[in-house]
Amino acid sequence: MGGVHAANFPQIVPVGSKPNNVQDFDTTVAFDSTIASQYIAGTSADPLLSGPCQTSGRCSDQQVFGGDLNVTMTQMANPATFASMCPTVLQKMIEVVPSGVVLTDPIVPYDIKPNVLQLTLQGGATNILFSGEIRVRTTIRPASQIASVQLVYKDRTGGSACGGCTITTQSKGTAAGFDDTYMVGAS
Fold it and tell me: Were 44 and a residue from 22, 38, 56, 67 both cysteine, which residue would form a disulfide, CB within 3.0 to 4.6 Å?
């Protein structure tokens, strides 16, 4: 579900040492018990457990996970126990917020979100290639109801006199987040 970004923490994940300069906490992208089971099995790649975090004194997961001699993490390695314990653990984390601090409203994901969009000059600067991804939230809208995603080009004045102004995406697969599912298309 997450990881450490080299750009923000180069003392934990050295720049250029991992794909996309991100070291994931575990081998899945889901919010699941994998982080606990890999920790207990001694196979975790969590950058906050070992590696450069040790020399920089930033192995926070090592301190938190082992704080009770691995009792909690051993229990959380079981998927059913993980699912039942997480609401309580997350609630405790939220309740650590000092009194007087006002939290914002929950973050709501965009239903449709462009990602890594890029315009590239090609052919001696005679053509422009538009590329990127479009993520469509399928939590409340079944992916089976989405035949394709199209982008319609508009010039800076809002006009569309460009000839072929529609860019159609191709399905790249699905993705999942904390509570949501997505279909991803690429152009």
Answer: 38
Range of the domain at 153: 112-186
Residue 64 counted as domain residue: yes
DSSP three-state, residue 24: strand
Note the pLDDT tens digit of each residue in 67-87.
Answer: 899 999 999 999 999 999 888
Cα separation, 25 vs 4, in Å, equals 8
Cβ 61 vs Cβ 48: under 8 Å: yes
- Phi-psi group of 61: left, alpha or beta (phi > 0 → left; psi -120 to 50 → alpha; rest → beta): alpha
105 is a domain residue: no
Quickly tell me which residue has 């001699």 as its tokens: 69
The C-alpha atoms of residue 77 and residue 43 are separated, in whole angstroms, by 13
Give a yes or no: residue 103 inside a domain. no
**Per-residue model confidence (pLDDT) at position 163:** 67
